[in-house]
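> call design_seq(struct)
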């Protein structure tokens, strides 16, 4: 190893020690931190069109958030324990920042956000998933009891409280958004809430209920889809970890529906 590389590694190691002294995880970051980074990468892939269109900034606040998230991905990437995956994650985080600064097209940004998520998923501990979900009627009843004040009876983001909320509650029927959200991302939003918005953490619900709601709201944009498509050969882990768009790019026959 060249001396400069050695020093760079040492520097990163020291940085990690001073910044996260209590964490001894293999990845260098806690599971929760890794999941937050995945969530940020996913949000950039989803919200970027609200910040940039045709190479121009169309919303300075949204754009500032994109830059902030990209910088955080870079900074946290430095804290990862060295591994081939960490090298990829760091390179993708830098490429993402560069694409945002260049106000690149959404397709290019999404290539980097997808690779970042994939890298983070590969070093995160395996997900613990419930063995069964509530059935559709139970999920709908739970949604009606807990969520309609903001998200609306049908999930269109038009509940009685919606008008006074900024940002507005998500419209789960918005196809483009749903295409780019993983079930894991929805589950984490329900479990941890979304900072700075009316979306709070639903700690009162157990894991099975939160997963069931993630599947329920995540499927709304795809209801009425033809069920003729061949049964997707998909593991549950893959199904929850990747967005419909990413899943479909690997499997053209995949069509998410309830
Ligand atoms: C008090 C209002 C309120 C209630 C009640 C509420 N939400 Fe939300 N929710 C929001 C808002 C506002 C957002 C959008 C936040 C943003 O734009 O970052 C949101 C976002 C979300 C998201 C993220 C969607 C995405 O694509 O990023 C999910 C998932 C979600 N809500 C699920 C639920 C579920 C399930 C319930 C019921 C258990 C619920 N929400 C109840 C206000 C609420």
């Amino acid at each position: 190893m060249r001396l400069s590389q050695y020093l760079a590694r040492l520097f990163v190691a020291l940085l990690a020690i001073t910044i996260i002294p209590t964490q001894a995880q293999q990845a260098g970051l806690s599971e929760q931190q890794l999941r937050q980074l995945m969530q940020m990468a996913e949000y950039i892939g989803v919200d970027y069109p609200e910040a940039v269109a045709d190479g121009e900034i169309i919303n300075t606040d949204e754009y500032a958030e994109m830059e902030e998230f990209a910088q955080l991905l870079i900074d946290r990437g430095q804290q990862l324990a060295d591994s081939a995956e960490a090298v990829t994650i760091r390179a993708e985080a830098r490429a993402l920042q560069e694409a945002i600064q260049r106000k690149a097209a959404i397709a290019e940004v999404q290539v980097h956000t997808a690779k970042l998520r994939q890298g983070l998923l590969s070093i995160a501990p395996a997900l613990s998933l419930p063995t069964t979900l509530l059935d559709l009627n139970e999920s709908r009843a739970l949604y009606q009891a807990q969520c309609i004040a903001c998200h609306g009876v049908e999930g269109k983001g038009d509940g009685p409280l919606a008008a006074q909320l900024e940002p507005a509650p998500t419209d789960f029927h918005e196809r483009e958004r749903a295409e780019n959200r993983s079930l894991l991302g929805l589950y984490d939003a329900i479990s941890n809430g979304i900072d700075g918005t009316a979306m709070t953490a639903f700690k009162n619900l157990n894991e099975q209920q939160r997963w069931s709601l993630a599947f329920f709201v995540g499927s709304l944009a795809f209801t009425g889809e033809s069920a003729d498509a061949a049964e997707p050969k998909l593991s549950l882990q893959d199904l929850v970890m990747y967005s419909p768009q990413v899943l479909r790019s690997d499997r053209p026959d995949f069509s998410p529906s309830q």
